[in-house]
Amino acid sequence: MRRYARRVTDRELDEDMNPISHEHADVSGGRVRAATFGAMDGLVTNISLVAGVGGAGASAHTIVLSGVAGLIAGAFSMALGEFTSVSTQNEQLDAEVAVERNEIEKNPRGELDELIDMLTDMGMTESTATTAANEIHADPDGAVNVHIIHELGVAPRTSRPRGWPRSPRSSCSRSAASCRSSPTCSASRR
Description:
7 helices
């Protein structure tokens, strides 16, 4: 989406030019967090490993081998850790969705009143909030989604992190950072 620094006249507007963008960057921390954490972990652990082995008076071959082993082990560790943490997060979200679904089935009036209160707290009049809540609760899946969004602050339909796409990102950024600090990679760049 393009952004414009100057004011665009109505005559200039067409389907490709929209001076107001409603698209936002991903601020949930998924992609950037995995890459940043991987890079920082790779720098700190590999530098520490290589410095420790070198400080112990090991041969150059042993230092290089330790650095490469640390890089590989760290990359696998980051990938599996990312996958496991995301899987656990999704399981917790699924459990909370099941709890909310159960509450709506067992106590529909209470959940409807709860949604009316949430909507009035957001600034709707009580009559508008009641109408909106009734329309939302007409679709049980939609009602669960809205309650989860407002009660937990996550959208179960759209904000489910996926472990496998993030695992390589975390692993690769860790490996790249480790390689930059490794004597093996430094020597090969000369």
